[in-house]
Write a structure and sequence with these properties.
Helix content is 37%, strand content 18%.
């Protein structure tokens, strides 16, 4: 049986800390190892207790982002921040700037929405516990001092922000091979659309979690994407990404008879990230995602298609290649290394090995 996640609870209000502690104790797989009500005490306990995850609630009188920045400068730990809905847009950006892995919109008033927020906090705390994070020094410390404005990169600038993957027939095994080739500290989120019969997404999630060093979860609307986490599109909903890295699900009509559709996902990440994304098209029947992969490539994104030899059905990837939409055509075992090479290199630099 897996060891429980060791959680440090931080908040300015005793009532808030008690509520979070009760929720964690009532959950499965958690051990609350300490509580802190100040920045100094939080950094001390983060260093001495070595928790596997820290949960911090932001309020008007208690700056969770300042506390998170201070912790990340001395004892890098996965941090989940809870904050009021009014911070929903800026909260995600601020959480990223200080090194937190997730931001949860949490109303202060008790009720159904508050309970839902606590449930999301439990889910994220369990998922993120133990994920490798890096110490943040200069920028995090300056933000903690309240002197540096938060900057959010816009589409078309900077490094890769997301990897989008589409697959169909033969996809589960291909996805297991791809995810199994990634490191535990993979630096960006992955969004996955796999064509499956309704009711099988949870089985796919379990299969991929067994094969993958990074956590795999079923995407939920409004969920903040975290680096090093893979998100699977749920049954009967299109998977996309919205403003500031939050997942957006849609019940828009099926595309080509499919929902979720790879075409919807690729179009969404191209709109949100421009050239700052990587598109991957794996084994599968039909042409879902092929046109949109070509458009991603035209926008400057790196695109990777699985080759015929390693595909169960050479359909979707074949169509993308025919359109000139694949930057690289790779055996399934070579796709993860190609993604990693693409992440390490400046935009526009060639990855070693043959292209089309």
């Amino acid at each position: 049986m897996a060891s429980p996640a060791r959680v440090l609870v931080v908040g300015g209000s005793a009532a808030t800390r008690r509520e979070m502690r009760v929720a964690l104790v009532g959950g499965v797989g958690f051990e609350v190892v300490g509580e802190a009500s100040s920045l100094q005490r939080a950094t001390e306990l983060a260093g001495s207790l070595s928790p596997s995850v820290i949960v911090i609630e932001h309020s008007g009188s208690f700056d969770a982002f300042e506390v998170a920045a201070a912790i990340m400068a001395v004892a890098a730990t996965p941090i989940v921040i809870m904050g009021p809905p009014g911070l929903a847009r800026d909260g995600v950006a601020w959480a990223r700037e200080v090194g937190a892995v997730a931001f949860v919109r949490a109303p202060t008033e008790r009720g159904l929405e508050r309970r839902a927020a606590l449930a999301e906090m439990l889910y994220l705390a369990r998922t993120m516990a133990g994920i490798k994070v890096v110490t943040r020094f200069s920028r995090a410390s300056r933000i903690a001092a309240g002197r540096v404005p938060v900057h959010v990169e816009t589409a078309g600038s900077g490094s890769v922000g997301v990897v989008a993957v589409g697959s169909s027939t033969g996809g589960p095994q291909a996805l297991a091979t791809l995810l199994g080739g990634l490191p535990k500290d993979f630096p960006v989120p992955l969004l996955i659309v796999q064509h499956l019969a309704v009711g099988f997404q949870s089985m796919l999630q379990r299969q991929l979690n067994d094969a993958s060093p990074i956590p795999v979860m079923i995407a939920a609307d409004g969920m903040a994407m975290a680096p090093g986490v893979a998100y699977i599109g749920p049954d009967e909903m299109h998977l996309g990404v919205g403003h500031l890295g939050r997942i957006e699900l849609s019940d828009a009509p099926p595309e080509g008879g499919l929902r979720p559709a790879v075409s919807y996902l690729f179009r969404s990440v191209r709109r949100a990230y421009g050239s700052r994304c990587i598109g991957v098209l794996l084994t599968g029947m039909g042409r879902d995602g092929a046109d949109e992969m070509a458009l991603m490539s035209e926008a400057g994104a790196v695109t990777i298609a699985q080759d015929e030899q390693s595909s169960v059905v050479f359909g979707m990837a074949k169509e993308a290649i025919a359109l000139g939409g694949a930057t690289y055509v790779r055996d399934i075992g070579e796709i993860a290394p190609t993604i990693l090479d693409s992440l390490r290199r400046p935009r526009g630099a060639a990855v070693g090995g043959s292209q089309l």
